[in-house]
Amino acid sequence: MRDFPSCFGENGVQVADASSSSSISVNRASQNSATSVFSCKLLGKSCLISIIWSKNLMGQCLSVEIEDSSRQCILKVDVKPSLFSKRKGSKCLEVNSRRIEIFWDVSMANFGSGQEPIDGYYIAVVSKGEMILLVGDLRKEAFKKTGAVSFLPRKAPLISKREHISGKRVYSTKAQFFDNGRFHDLKIECISHPTQDPMLVVCIDSKIVFQIKHLQWNFRGNCLIKIDSVPVEVFWDVHNWLFGQCLGTAVFLFHSDRIWNNQQLHPEFDDSSFREAKLSGFGFSLILYACKTE
């Protein structure tokens, strides 16, 4: 995963990158986006397929990126607003002399308040009649449109999701903490008083799951919570909220499997080790970039 934010650098939010040509910065331009990363098989090898929903002044955008296990981007398809406005379509490219097709249909999609649709849509990645990845609830329509006959033995696992949320003091979103898990209402609040140190409060479904006092001293850290009876490790880095620019971005990571022992931060944890863990089948991670709008 190219743009996993490290919580351990001296500058707070840092962004690792697989190649300079595909760098993604955590800035205001990227605030309106949501990225889902799936573990798939293509050309007989493991790969990561990212579905990126975004919105800019021109309208809604969709991108599909495929990366191999060596962290190289082997395919990228951008559906720009002018093409996205048609609500359905397809694109075809060749990778290593193999034809790969991307199909999408959002003509009946319900986007709700977020960047990605809730239901009424599909995105399909097909190669030689094999359904490599199918996202969305319109599965029958997708197979009919694509002509794919090789049904997937199982649904491609969602291994991570990245989302940008913004607010003044309270940051809210609908969050899924596991692959195929149910959605929860997640609220992150930074409480500050003129005479007291700021405090961080995280609520799930209106219940406080943890709070961090003396945030000026504990602006980076981690803890273990339970969601749906499953242990979830939480990391936070709010350095830029407190000491950075006025429109600073904080990072929160919710991970549903134990890459780290007990609750100790791994000293060599970086983008490479995280990606290797993902390709090895380690759990699911939700990464939230929370940007202050004032």
Account of the protein in words:
9% of the residues lie in helices and 51% in strands. It has helices at 81-84, 139-146, 239-243, 271-279, and strands at 5-9, 12-15, 33-42, 45-56, 59-68, 73-79, 88-95, 98-105, 122-127, 130-136, 158-167, 170-176, 183-193, 196-204, 207-212, 220-227, 230-237, 249-255, 285-292. A hairpin with a 2-residue loop joins strand 14 (196-204) and strand 15 (207-212). The longest helix is centred in the last third of the chain and has 9 residues, at 271-279. The model is unreliable at 1-30 and 258-281 (pLDDT under 50).
Q: Find the structural class using helix and strand composition.
A: mainly beta
Q: Helical amount among residues, as a percent range?
A: under 10%
Instruction: Look at the structure and give the mean pLDDT.
Output: 77
Per DSSP, what share of the residues sits in E-state strands of 2 or more residues?
A: over 45%
Number of strands: 19
End-to-end C-alpha gap: 30 Å
Low-confidence stretches: 1-30, 258-281
Radius of gyration: 19 Å
Please list the strands of the largest sheet in the order they lie side by side: 6-5-4-3-11-19-18-17-16
**Could you give a short account of the major beta sheet?**
9 strands, mixed
N-to-C SSE string, H for helix and E for strand: EEEEEEHEEEEHEEEEEEEHEHE
Shape: elongated
Q: So how many helices?
A: 4
Question: How would the blueprint of this fold be written?
Answer:
Blueprint: E1 5-9, E2 12-15, E3 33-42, E4 45-56, E5 59-68, E6 73-79, H1 81-84, E7 88-95, E8 98-105, E9 122-127, E10 130-136, H2 139-146, E11 158-167, E12 170-176, E13 183-193, E14 196-204, E15 207-212, E16 220-227, E17 230-237, H3 239-243, E18 249-255, H4 271-279, E19 285-292
Parallel strand pairs: 11-19
Antiparallel strand pairs: 1-2, 3-4, 3-11, 4-5, 5-6, 7-8, 8-9, 9-10, 12-13, 13-14, 14-15, 16-17, 17-18, 18-19
